[in-house]
Structures are given as structure tokens and as C-alpha cells.
Amino acid sequence: MRWTTLCDFACFAAGIGVVAWLADGAARGVPGMGPWIAATAAAWLLYPLALRGGVPAACACLAGDDAPGTASCLGRAGGVPVVFSPRYDITACGLERAHPFDSTKYSRVFRTLVDAGVLERGEECVPSQLSLAQLTRAQGWWWLARLGYGLRAVMALELPPLGFLPSWAVWWRVLEPMQLASAGTVCAAELALARPSAWAINLGGGFHHARHGFGHGFCVFNDLTMAAQRALDGGFGCRRLLYLDLDVHQGDGIERDMGWDPRVAVVDAFHPGLFPGDAAAAACPALAERGARFFHRAGDGGDRFLEWLRTELPRVLAAFDPDLVLYNAGSDVLVGDPLGGMDLPESAVCERDAIVFRCCGVGARGGAASPALGTSPEGARLFRASGGRRRAVAMALSGGYQAETAGVVARSIAAMDAELGLVEAAKAGEAPAGS
Ligand SMILES: [Zn+2]
Questions:
Q1: Residues 46, 178 within the same domain
Q2: Most exposed among 78, 125, 191, 321, judged by the fewest C-beta atoms under 10 Å?
Q3: For 236, which DSSP code?
Q4: Is 60 within the bounds of a domain?
Q5: pTM of the model as a whole
Q6: Interval between CA 347 and ligand 1 midpoint (Å)
Q7: C-alpha dihedral over 190, 315, 266, 85, to 10 degrees?
Q8: CATH number of the domain bearing residue 269
Q9: Alpha-carbon distance 243 to 136, whole Å?
Q10: CA triplet 374, 378, 384: central angle to 5 degrees?
Q11: Residues 132, 46: one domain?
């Protein structure tokens, strides 16, 4: 629990006391209660604005606590660049079960990876919370101020039962876990760029619908925009960045936020009949001129999707030559997803992730490694077609709404590790920074 949550709770309790005292006074006809009632109402109205939004956000921006070149979001850097905290899970006294999103999939993916022997507990990287300056830059102080009231967040999250909770509870149980998962994506981008192994996976995040000053579609903070800003302006030597969105929904948030930045290209495959259907976002130069867009519906078949990815991703990588691929790996493309509609089988989801990592040439057996080390002909071909140089890749989990999703994600990561030697390459690299 953060100090802001404690402040929220204390003020909430004090507010209840003051209101009870005023009500008692008014009932007994004590004179002069009017100004007290007005002052209490004003304090209740303005308090979230002062605590969460305008004042502290503006101060943090002026202080500039987002110094370039420092791994500010790293709480503890482990030997394997899998970024995770059990605090990613969103639980709210059982109310979370009313939501179609499996809000504990993050820890289930982590546990499955540990059980499969991909990594050991304690080897993961644990993020600490984002600075207010990072949040404010990506989301805008006015949006943060509105989130102080909780109710606006509940609307963005499309979870009306949460509206019955006080805003401090919404922050504590929902928004702070989402903030931490957002820090995880920033952390993953930093790790991918800073370490020689050049890959990192955040077992959360991928809130690609939020944008500056606005949130919708379960997304309140856009971690991908924050990671892109951090990668490009944080002193990591990242000149260009490819944002690759293979979630079933369009990545409208980052397209609107970063799509006019000439250092960014976007490749986005999504179902054209689903939320958000944002034509203005899709018209951004990063996607329309430098990237690629692909429509895929249920019934089109996994082979068609994979064939497009095998062709277009290497083409854009070779032409745009980015230093980092920011990969939003939504698993709501999986067959049967209630909010999806692409109906890809598990094998296609695993192959999709592997194609991305093969193109980037990461892992002890990826990229330019000799065939004697086990490089597959397919992996070597994709790597050469992508320009033949290793590129950093940072992956976030994003959507995925079924009980089976966590297992599919974990099996996909384990399969990539088995093929490419991801963990082996990470452990063979330099000692983790900051540990
Ligand atoms: Zn999605």
C-alpha cells in the first residue's frame, strides 16, 4: 500500500467523521453549521484533484524526475529479463469476477513458467512504480486528476460494480496494479535495450487503448506509449522503434500518441469489426506510410495470418531498421475468446510469437548463430529477410480473456525459450544492472 492510499484512507475515514458530526449538529439545530458544511463539501470535491492529479503531477513535471539514461523503474533486476510482480493481479473483494478479463492471469503465467523450469523464483525482474513525471507525460495531468475521482477510471474499465467502491479502494485494488504492470513494460523496454541478450517479456501490461488525456476499453494508462517514450528519449541509443500490435483489437492509443513521430513505425493486425475501429488512429503516418495493417476475421484461418506475418514483419524491419521492437502480444486472438473474433488455434499463437523473436534474432540459438548451434532454417531465413541484425524486443501480454489463456501464453514463452535459448542467452550475458 502506497502513502497516497494511506492518505486516501485516512481522509475518507476523517471525512465520514466530519459528515457525522455535521449531521448531528444540523439535527440538533446548532447554529452556524452552514459554512462548515460548505467547506466539507468543497474539501471532498477538491481533495482527489490535489492528491492525485494537478498539483503533484505538475510538481513532478517541473522537477523532471525522469532523468535520461537511468533505469528508474527497476525495483530489483534479476538474471532473467522476465518482468513480473504478484501485485499485477487485480482483485477487488470478488468483484473482479464480474469482468470478462481473467485478472489473475499474470501470476498464473509466472507460476506455469516456474513449474515448467523456464526460470526459478527470484530470477525475474521486479518493477517499482512509475514516476509521476512519466505518468504525466504519457497521460496528461488532467487525465490523472480526473482519475483521482475513481469513477472516471471505473468508466474506462467498463466495470460498473466498482463504482460502489470509494476512489481510494479503486486506486488500491485496480489502478495501482495497472500502474505497476505499466512500469513493467517500461522496465522490459529498458532491459531489452540495455542488456546484450536484447529481449525482455513483461508478464502483464499491454494497455494499448489508453492515450493522452483519455482511457477506454479496460485501459487507463498506456504502458506502451510510456515504454516508447522511455526507449526513444531515455538515453538508450534507440533511434527508431517498431510498435508491433498483434492483439485482436486495434492499438489505437499508441497510434494516436506516437503515430506522428518519425522515429516510430507501426505494424497492426486486428479484427476490423471490433472495438475501437479508430480510423483516425489508423491513418497515422507510422502505420499508413512506414508500417503495415492487416485485417483478420474468424474463419480466415491461422495459416493466412502467419503467412502475412512472415512476409510483412521482415519487410518492415528491413526497410525501417528499428533498434527496438515493442511487441504487444495480445492472446485474445485465441479461439473461443469472448471478446475476440480471430479464432487462432494455440499452435498459431505460439508460432506468431516465435516468428517475432526469430525475426529479431535474439537468444543463444537465434539470429546469426551457426546451424551447428541449432538455428532452424526458418529462423535463419526470417532473420536474414529482416535485415540480418539483432534487434531488441520487448513483449507485453495485453488482452486475453479466457481461463486457458495463461497456459497458452506460458507454453508459447517456454517454446520460444526451447527453440532460441532465450534464458541461456540472458544468463550468459553481463551481470544484471542494478543488482
Ligand atoms: Zn484486445
A1: no
A2: 321
A3: S
A4: no
A5: 0.87
A6: 19
A7: -30
A8: 3.40.800.20
A9: 21
A10: 95
A11: no
Q: Which is nearest to 200 in space by CA: 380, 71, 333?
A: 71
Return mean pLDDT, the chain.
85
C-alpha to C-alpha distance for 337 and 331, rounded to whole angstroms: 9
Domain that holds residue 10: 1-52
With respect to residue 415, please indicate whether it lies within any of the assigned structural domains: yes
Q: What is the pLDDT of residues 50-79, one digit of tens each?
A: 655 555 555 555 555 444 444 445 667 788
Question: Based on the domain organization, do 172 and 221 belong to the same domain?
Answer: yes
- Residue 317 pLDDT > 80: yes
Longest dimension (CA), the chain: 90
Same domain, 297 and 230: yes
User: How far, in Å, is the centroid of ligand 1 from the Cα of 391?
Assistant: 25
Mean pLDDT of 135-151: 81
Given a cut of 70, whether residue 363 has pLDDT beyond it is yes
Percentage of the chain modeled with pLDDT above 90 = 56
Mention every residue, 6+ apart, whose C-beta is less than 8 A from residue 346: 334, 335, 408, 411
- Of 172, 53, 2, nearest to 45 by C-alpha is 53
Task: State the amino acid at position 54 in one-letter form.
Answer: G
Residue 435: inside a domain, yes or no?
no
Helices 223-233, 132-139: axis angle to 10 degrees equals 110
Helix (H) or strand (E) holding 355: helix 346-360
**C-alpha of residue 204 to centroid of ligand 1, in Å:** 13
Give the Å distance between the CA of 137 and the centre of ligand 1.
Answer: 24
Same domain, 46 and 182: no
Residues 153-192: tens digit of each pLDDT: 778 887 777 777 777 788 888 888 999 999 999 999 999 9
- List all residues 6 or more positions away from 392 whose beta carbon is below 8 Å from its beta carbon: 189, 192, 193, 198, 199, 238, 323, 324, 325, 360, 362
**63 inside domain:** no
Q: How far is the CA of 147 from the centre of ligand 1 (A)?
A: 22
Distance 334 CA to ligand 1 centre (A): 11
Are 150 and 17 found together in one domain?
no
CA 425 – ligand 1 centroid, Å: 31
Q: Are β-strands 241-245 and 199-202 bridged in parallel, bridged antiparallel, or unpaired?
A: unpaired
Domain total of the chain = 2
Please write down the long-range contacts of 343-346, taking CB distance under 8 Å and 24 or more positions apart: 343/298, 343/299, 344/302, 344/305, 345/302, 346/408, 346/411
For ligand 1, the distance from its centroid to the CA atom of residue 101, given in whole angstroms, is: 10
Query: Are residues 48 and 101 located together in one domain of the fold?
Result: no
344 and 275 assigned to the same domain: yes
Ligand 1 centroid distance, CA of 206 (Å):
9
